[in-house]
Amino acid sequence: MTCGSGMHSHNIYYRKQKNLMNTVETRIKHLACTHSHDMHACALLIGSPFLFDLIGQQAEKAVLKRGSFQRLCLSDVSNSSSIQAIDDISVSLVGPKLHTFTLEELREATHNFSWSNLLGEGGFGPVYKGFVDDKLRPGLKAQSVAVKRLDLDGKQGHKEWLAEIIFLGQLRHPHLVKLIGYCYEEEHRLLVYEFMARGSLENQLFRRYSAALPWSTRMKIALGAAKGLAFLHETDKPVIYRDFKTSNILLDSDYTAKLSDFGLAKDGPEGEETHITTRVMGTQGYAAPEYIMTGHLTTKSDVYSYGVVLLELLTGKRVVDKTRPSREQNLVEWARPLLRDQRKLFRVIDPRVEGQFPIKGAQKVAALAYKCLSHNPNPRATMSDVVKILESLQNFDDVFKGPFVYVAVSETSDGDIVKGKEG
Ligand SMILES: Nc1ncnc2c1ncn2[C@@H]1O[C@H](COP(=O)(O)OP(=O)(O)OP(=O)(O)O)[C@@H](O)[C@H]1O
Ligand SMILES: [Mg+2]
């Protein structure tokens, strides 16, 4: 079934399932009342109009099976025996808050996917800036959007697209990027997100000519991203994000951090289980050692990746960089031993913050990164611990007033930064 040509049969299907929808909606209203005391339930319920606005038999089964309100899991969909069933569900996850766009509409919104609208490109495919408003869909807020288009010759496909819709379509939080809608038309798969004005943390932190992020901004980003991850780990049914890295942290105009890219996300272990076992996937340098060795995935694997990003924020250095001296190419191996030694901390902290950071605060952040990067998963902090610690450090004011250091950032051809000193 497609967005365009399949609309007629889709409407018939819709009418057939209307009674089911009414029952489900009543149930949601009831649950919204009975669970309103629970913050997590509330957060999930924000997504409920489209969560249970499911019009397939699978949705009915999912509700009856659990007998109570719960998020639809990826396995509810991907365990379906036929590809068609997956297709039906993805088409059925439509509701007032998740819009289905046609390819033509998204073409219009992005100036025909023009090169000048290109924001970047990742494993899924190119991402374009676009604009939508209520002329496109009644009730749709006039806003800039980011449109991600599946590269039909690329490594990712329907599965990653569907995971994004299943997770981001249901989970709403100030530190998760908002999915506005999608397109499913023949072989085309697109995703439409809120536009994040400052792009990815990767670009802000490492792009050659971007201004250096001050310490307080780095801490704001670290806290926002930690809150997003903590939310995922603490929902009724935990989600393991599995791809935490600087390019997946997007920044709003005021540097509010939001997690994007749920293509690799997994539902966490259930009941007595302590982990799930899965094929090792992710990005080099960010994956936890035990996950690489055994394929055992837990929320603590995400905590390790979080530690890597925190270290990148502290140092301004990429996790792996073959242009650095061989001893320093692997950031974690080089920096982790230095994090606990207060005298050596100055060697670690990004020279581009020009000494403008609170010493005690920096020591605490370094100790936190050290803990998150523990080789053994057990001593790693939980994400809610991380949030608590970072919240307490947001307004540290014992800023180091060192000698004035003039840092003239120019770059050699191999990407090394050359610094000049004055004063
Ligand atoms: N919602 C958005 N708002 C603004 N820019 C975005 C948005 N989503 C993505 N981008 C831009 O598009 C780029 C590519 O994003 P994408 O997530 O597809 O790839 P990636 O994260 O770089 O790589 P990977 O495939 O490993 O995740 C990002 O780096 C960012 O600059
Ligand atoms: Mg990404």
Strand content: 5-15%
- Overall, the morphology is globular
User: Average pLDDT value?
Assistant: 78
Poorly predicted ranges: 1-69, 80-90, 401-423
Strands, count: 14
The strands making up the biggest β-sheet line up spatially as 1-5-6-4-3-2
Radius of gyration from the CA trace? 23 Å
N-C termini distance:
69 Å
CATH class division of the largest domain:
Mainly Alpha
- Tell me the number of structural domains: 3
User: Helical element count?
Assistant: 17
Please estimate the helix content: 25-40%
CATH structural architecture of the largest domain: Orthogonal Bundle
Q: Name the CATH superfamily assignment of the largest domain.
A: Transferase(Phosphotransferase) domain 1
Task: Lay out the secondary structure.
Elements (H helix, E strand, L loop, with lengths): L6 H10 L1 H17 L4 H8 L1 H4 L5 H10 L7 H5 L4 H10 L6 E2 L2 H7 L8 E4 L4 E7 L10 E7 L8 H11 L10 E7 L2 E7 L6 H6 L8 H20 L4 E2 L8 E3 L5 E3 L6 E2 L8 E2 L11 H6 L1 E2 L1 H17 L15 H9 L5 H4 L10 H14 L10 H10 L17 E2 L5 E2 L5
Helix pairs in contact: 11-13, 11-17, 13-16
